[in-house]
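Fill in residues.
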């Protein structure tokens, strides 16, 4: 589980920004935390801010770190795409994540700095004990590594990650690396884009797996029925669906048949039930709700770290509110959820603790990320645990809120058109 994450010089971020997932003082909404021997860790965190302020990029940076570690090198990594582009000075992209591993009951830190195409710094610590340090100019190891492992590290070419390549080539590797491997395997990033047909097929497969599992199928359909979206549940149709040979719009009819196997249960006005193919008859919002529930159930089942960009997109705020309540009150999981949103109705002291709500604020010079825990009671803002968070945010007391002004822009545009007209006449 993530305890703390830092990133700098990535996309919009020049100076280091940081998200902390540790519980602060206060007993309100204790169900939103998981208690361990070392720490009390937040189950979720949500980020607010103006459009193009960096919310999505922050979540994406975690996924980028995961992908680099999984690959083990910087081949085809375009530094210029990911590096901060708002400042002239070229600085390294820096990632650092502190996480808690349940199986070993210890905290770990993994860091990666990318200075260029083949120039990296990589390090890994258990608590404060350095396990290894890998850079082009320096290699450092602890007595936790044996001579073979130290030799592998010292022979690494420039731009090659030690952890990733070591675990690829050594079948029975040092147990000190297992927490790191477990951690990165648990990270999953989703943005629910409907423009990618491969995602449609992926979610059909995931939905099939859930509906084929009696325990999770029951949970899935319970959530659908209780969502008040005019559905009585979903089923997966095993038997053949009538079709003919050929193609429709260059899509094979076998694929069309498979797409129709996930069916939604509707009730007619007469009271009779009818099954209809979900992908063709459910609304965009209903399909998106299904995908979110699929991801949430999968995360709870597998103890994942789920990164959800714009969880509120296409959904009524009451529906998202219930999803978050479900996440916080589900007890048999150590999953974590990092989300972004624009829905101010979710900035609610009955739904989140102060430290779970984060604001990202972009200025001309930098981007800042801070939680509502930074606003103390009896301070200028006087943010108490039971305060109206939504009202404070919409009034601009936390920052991170846009100030659009179309009226002046349109007025100036009309004046320009009038001047052109006057010149012609």
């Amino acid at each position: 589980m993530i305890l703390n994450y830092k990133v700098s010089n990535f996309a919009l971020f020049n100076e280091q920004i940081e998200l902390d997932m540790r519980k602060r003082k206060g007993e309100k909404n204790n169900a939103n935390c998981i208690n361990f021997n070392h720490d009390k860790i937040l189950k979720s965190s949500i980020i607010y801010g103006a459009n193009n302020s960096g919310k999505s990029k922050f979540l994406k940076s975690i996924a980028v770190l995961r992908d680099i570690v999984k690959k083990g090198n910087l081949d085809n990594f375009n530094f210029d795409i990911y590096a901060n582009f708002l400042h002239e000075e070229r600085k390294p992209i820096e990632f650092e994540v502190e996480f808690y591993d349940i199986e070993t009951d210890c905290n770990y830190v993994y860091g990666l700095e990318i200075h260029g195409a083949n120039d990296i710094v990589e390090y890994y610590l258990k608590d404060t004990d350095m396990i290894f340090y890998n850079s082009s100019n320096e290699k450092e190891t602890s007595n936790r590594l044996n001579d073979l492992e130290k030799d592998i590290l010292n022979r690494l070419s420039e731009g090659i990650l030690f952890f990733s390549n070591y675990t690829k080539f050594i079948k029975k590797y040092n147990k000190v690396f297992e927490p790191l491997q477990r951690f990165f395997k648990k990270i999953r990033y989703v943005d629910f884009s409907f423009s990618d047909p491969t995602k449609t097929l992926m979610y059909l497969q995931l939905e099939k797996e859930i509906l084929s599992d009696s325990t999770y199928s029951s949970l899935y359909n319970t959530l659908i029925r209780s969502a008040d979206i005019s559905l009585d549940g979903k089923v997966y149709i095993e038997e053949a669906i009538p079709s003919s040979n050929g193609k429709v719009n260059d899509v094979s009819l076998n694929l069309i048949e498979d797409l129709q196997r996930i069916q939604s249960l509707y009730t007619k006005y007469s009271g009779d039930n009818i099954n209809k193919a979900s992908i063709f008859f459910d609304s965009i919002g209903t399909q998106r709700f299904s995908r979110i529930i699929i991801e949430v159930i999968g995360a709870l089942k597998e103890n994942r770290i789920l990164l959800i960009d714009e969880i509120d997109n296409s959904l009524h705020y009451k529906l998202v509110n219930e999803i978050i309540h479900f996440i916080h009150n589900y007890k048999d999981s150590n999953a974590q959820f990092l989300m972004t949103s624009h829905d101010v109705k979710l900035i609610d002291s009955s739904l989140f603790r102060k430290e779970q709500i984060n604001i990202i604020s972009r200025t001309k010079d930098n981007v800042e990320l801070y939680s509502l825990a930074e606003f103390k009671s009896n301070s200028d803002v006087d943010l108490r645990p039971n305060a109206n968070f939504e009202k404070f945010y919409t009034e601009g007391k936390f920052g991170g809120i846009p100030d659009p002004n179309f009226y002046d822009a349109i007025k100036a545009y009309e004046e320009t058109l009038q001047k052109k007209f006057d010149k012609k006449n």
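Residues 38 and 106 are 8 Å apart (CA to CA).
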